[in-house]
UniProtKB/TrEMBL annotation:
Xref: Pfam families: His_Phos_1
Superkingdom as given in the UniProt entry: Bacteria
PANTHER family (alphabetical): BROAD-SPECIFICITY PHOSPHATASE YOR283W-RELATED, HISTIDINE PHOSPHATASE FAMILY PROTEIN-RELATED
Protein name: Histidine phosphatase
Organism phylogeny: Bacteria, Pseudomonadati, Pseudomonadota, Gammaproteobacteria, Enterobacterales
Organism field: Buttiauxella ferragutiae ATCC 51602
Transmembrane segments: none
Amino acid sequence: MKVILVRHAETEWNLNRIIQGHSDSIITPRGMRETSALVTTLVERAYPIECIYSSPLERAWLMGVSLAEGLHCPLIMEPSLKEQAFGLFEGIASERLTRCNPDDANALFERDANYCPPAGETLAQASHRIMHFLHNLQEAKEYQTVCIVSHGHVSQGVLAQLKEGVIDNFPRYAQPNASYSVFELVDGKCTGLRWGISTHLLKLER
């Protein structure tokens, strides 16, 4: 099964570097242009996408709707594709968290996939639910090619596990807004992984 893993477009909180998690904020004007550019690229590349699964969080769902319309595919809401829950840190600027709680910020974003923010969940837990969904989807053998719309931080954990078999090096697997990754799942194993593809965004104005 081929998987195209997409991150949602830029939001106001992305722009202002505010931690989102299960909270939401509106898509920026640039985010709307990012969405159009991604849809155009996936149409041009003619991936034979049969179904799109999206996180129910609005910023991801809106991307899913645009992709479904552009690619003429069914769209299914999938709760397991949500971002990591950042708990009490949601709504706080990343810079403030780093200044006031540097050890927590470092563990959360750079060092420890098993770190749990207050009233949140670990990256390992969040990644596990997506990995479980992917493997169930692959075992069902219903589709040959699917598109998954999810979120930035949890995608880093998923990509690390797919590429290396462990989550430890998650910071290296950056997934910019409206970028996508492509990989194959064969008998539960990942092959041909390319991540953070964003060349379609290079000509967009800020």
